[in-house]
């Protein structure tokens, strides 16, 4: 019992003592232990949160975890000072006003950072993905915590704030697979040989070097149009950025083959029936 009382006296020994402050040896020990435990818990959390991420994405969280660690340490220090009898009310009031001002000023930045963290954790977007956002098709080149860099079809760099992926609709063309299905539509004149049209369209797709041989093209008889029989040629590619070029090549070849086989592509027509006034009377 006497040993316990001595230990209590040691921990209650004042290292700094004034009228308003009393920092004891026990408070310092508690602060050191709190730092050690906090550091250990944060390391475990970081390993758990990034266990399934590639090394490149893990490195992006270093600065975030450092910021969180310093913030937690700040709260530990304030709690220890409060337990030591130091009045921190004035500090808290001033800090609250500063943090509120910073929060409003950096609101957009925080949204970007949070969105970037969520994107990397759930792997909803990866480098190399073909995406469509705000009617622009581009390929993701780099993902950082604040923004994402993508390259458009005309080789222009598009810098996208990460909060856009949380608030706007995003089409990820390669989320499930790198293979993309696209189509070309064409209309032929009424009376055309539809089986011949189908055969020509399939041959045009199969002979194109950019379409995939592993996936058979498909021809669909889409509709009986006002002036034409409408067909859709569906083909598969593994490069989303090349789609406009492939479509153009197919249209050139389809036009060439239609001309060679006397299949005409009609233009819109309207029949006007004139009724004379005399006949009406």
Keywords:
281 residues; alpha+beta; SH3 type barrels; Alpha-Beta Plaits; five-stranded antiparallel sheet; 10 helices; elongated; mechanosensitive monoatomic ion channel activity; transmembrane helix; transmembrane
Short synopsis of the structure:
By secondary structure, the protein is of the alpha+beta class.
Structural summary, described in words:
- The chain is α+β, with helices and mostly antiparallel strands and 281 residues long.
- It has ten helices and ten strands.
- It has three domains: 104 residues, no CATH class; 48 residues, SH3 type barrels (Roll), CATH 2.30.30.60; 81 residues, 2-Layer Sandwich (Alpha-Beta Plaits), CATH 3.30.70.100.
- Strands 6-5-4-3-7 form a five-stranded antiparallel sheet. Strands 8-10-9 form a three-stranded antiparallel sheet, with helices on one face.
- A hairpin with a 4-residue loop joins β1 and β2.
- α2 packs antiparallel against α4 and α8 packs across α9.
- Its main location: membrane.
């Amino acid at each position: 019992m006497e040993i316990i009382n001595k230990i209590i006296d040691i921990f209650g020994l004042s290292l700094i003592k004034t009228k308003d402050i009393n920092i004891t040896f026990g408070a310092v020990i508690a602060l050191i232990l709190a730092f050690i435990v906090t550091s250990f818990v944060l390391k475990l959390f970081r390993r758990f949160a990034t266990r399934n991420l590639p090394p490149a994405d893990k490195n992006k969280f270093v600065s975030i975890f450092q910021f969180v660690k310093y913030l937690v340490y700040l709260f530990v220090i304030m709690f220890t000072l409060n337990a030591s009898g130091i009045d921190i009310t004035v500090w808290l009031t001033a800090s609250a006003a500063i943090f509120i001002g910073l929060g409003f000023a950096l609101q957009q930045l925080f949204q970007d950072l949070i969105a970037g963290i969520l994107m990397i954790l759930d792997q909803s977007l990866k480098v190399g993905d073909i995406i469509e956002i705000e009617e622009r098709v581009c390929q993701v080149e780099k993902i950082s915590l604040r923004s994402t860099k993508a390259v458009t079809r005309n080789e222009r760099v598009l810098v996208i704030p990460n909060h856009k992926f949380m608030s706007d609709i995003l089409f990820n063309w390669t989320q499930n697979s790198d293979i993309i299905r696209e189509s070309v539509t064409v209309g032929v004149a009424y009376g055309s040989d539809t089986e011949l049209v189908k055969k020509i369209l399939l041959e045009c797709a199969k002979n194109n070097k950019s379409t995939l041989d592993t996936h058979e093209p498909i021809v669909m008889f889409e509709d009986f149009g006002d002036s034409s029989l409408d067909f859709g040629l569906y083909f598969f590619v593994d490069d989303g950025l090349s789609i406009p070029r492939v479509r153009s090549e197919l249209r050139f070849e389809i036009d060439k083959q239609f001309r060679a086989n006397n299949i005409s592509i009609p233009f819109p027509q309207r029949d006007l029936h004139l009724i004379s006034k005399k006949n009406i009377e």
